[in-house]
Amino acid sequence: MRISTIVFAIILIAFVSCSQRQETDINIQGFYKPVENPIIKADSSYTFTDPIKKQVVKWQKADVFNPAAIVKDNKVYLLYRCEDNPAAALGGRTSRLGLAESEDGIHFKKFPEPVLYPDSSEFMQYDYPGGCEDPRLVQTEDGLYVVAYTSWNYKTPRLSIAFSNDLLHWQKKGPAFAKAYNAKFLDMPTKSASIITKMVNGKQVVAKINGKYWMYWGELFVNLAWSDNLFDWYPLLDDKGSLKAVATTRPKKFDSSLTECGPPAIVTDKGIILLFNGRNATDDTADPSLPKGMYSVGRMIFDKNDPGKLIERSDTSFLKPSLPHEITGQYSAGTTFAEGLVFFKNKWFLYYGTADSFVGVAITE
After folding, report:
1. Domains, the chain
2. Any idea what the Cα angle at residue 158 is, between residues 53 and 237, rounded to 5°?
3. 24-49 pLDDT tens trace
4. What pLDDT is stored for residue 4 in this prediction?
5. Residue 276 and residue 82: Cα distance in Å, rounded?
């Protein structure tokens, strides 16, 4: 009886250990695109009263794309970008963030109205008329939801932060770099923030490293920033007081033009895994194996004790446009632009925008 108990304990420990490894081991070569793609499309039947125009608008009539993701109450929730006016040119519309929920991670039910959008608050100067774009979503261990998104006023894109307790009602905290270094970077174009997370009892939550919160951000190169409160962020600087690049573009590779941070990074045994969106160049520095201007997804791994130390980087993208709707739409060069990653039902679900027009998903086997 005693031997059986010991054997059972050993098996249980091994099972738990295996489960924990599975949660943080992201096999980037194991993703496939289910036949349900695209999983979310534009729909002109959704309306709400715009608080600035005082008019009813079809807030997701044009395109829906670039989703953030989180697991809540054993469901996947997406915050996805919606554009209102199909007649306007690329970049000339108003974006609002919608919310959708799913019990299987593939089939989603949309909420009727947007949950984060331009309003008449003090932050209108930053996010109107362009709107709220391209969210990345995390939660703290005590359940606070934090979204990093782009505020777009048709002049300067600014990385901004908002908090929520329920995913429906959001408190805008304003531009992430408003206070840093006497507002040195407030009026500089900033976007694409990937706050570092970790797995705790099967739940992905914000991590602290060396007593601070950290996030990767940027598109022209990858920068790192730290915070004590998750809304005032301080970018890392070099000896000259300029932004310090922890990763840059590479000629003749899929990320020869841009290295734009993707979903929230995650601490694993291998290090901090950052999935990122690489844009192929449009000149002679482009990767010749991909169409010029194409967006595809790669991986970086940073030292888990030193988030600024890059230790591994993929030479080729593991997710790229391959379906018809991923190479048509607003961005016909082809786009798989990842912004949401969740561990759900013992699999990784990677949510991405396709050609600035639809929402797609890739799932591990």
Report:
1. 38-364 (2.115.10.20)
2. 170
3. 679 889 999 999 999 999 999 999 99
4. 47
5. 22
User: What's the N-to-C CA distance of the chain in angstroms?
Assistant: 39
Per-residue pLDDT, 24: 65
The CA–CA distances, whole Å, from 156 to 3, 131, 185, 237 equal 68, 12, 11, 21
Structure tokens at 29: 């070569």
Is the pLDDT reported for residue 91 higher than 90? Answer: no
Report whether pLDDT(9) > 90. no
pLDDT of residue 33: 98
Contacts of 335 by beta carbon, 8 Å cutoff, 6+ apart: 294, 295, 321, 326, 353, 354, 355, 356
- What integer pLDDT is reported at residue 90 of this predicted model? 67
> Virtual CA dihedral for 147, 153, 158, 161, nearest 10 degrees?
-20
233-235 sheet: strands from edge to edge: 193-195, 213-217, 223-227, 233-235
The two structure tokens encoding residue 121: 């608050």
With a cut of 90, say whether residue 206 has pLDDT above it.
Answer: yes
Which of 230, 215, 226, 326 shows the shortest CA–CA distance to 276? 215
The pLDDT tens digits of the residues spanning 141-171 come to: 999 999 999 999 999 999 999 999 999 999 9
Q: Residues near 53 by Cβ (< 8 Å), separated by ≥ 6?
A: none
Half-sphere exposure of 240 (CA within 13 A, CB side): 4
pLDDT of residue 287 exceeding 80: yes
Range 145-151, long-range pairs (CB < 8 A, 24+ positions): 145/70, 146/195, 146/206, 146/230, 146/231, 147/68, 147/79, 147/97, 147/116, 148/176, 148/193, 148/195, 148/215, 148/217, 149/97, 149/116, 150/191, 150/192, 151/123, 151/126, 151/127, 151/175
Share of the chain residues as helix, strand and coil, in percent rounded to the nearest 5 = 10, 45, 50
Tokens 């007081």 label which residue?
Answer: 241
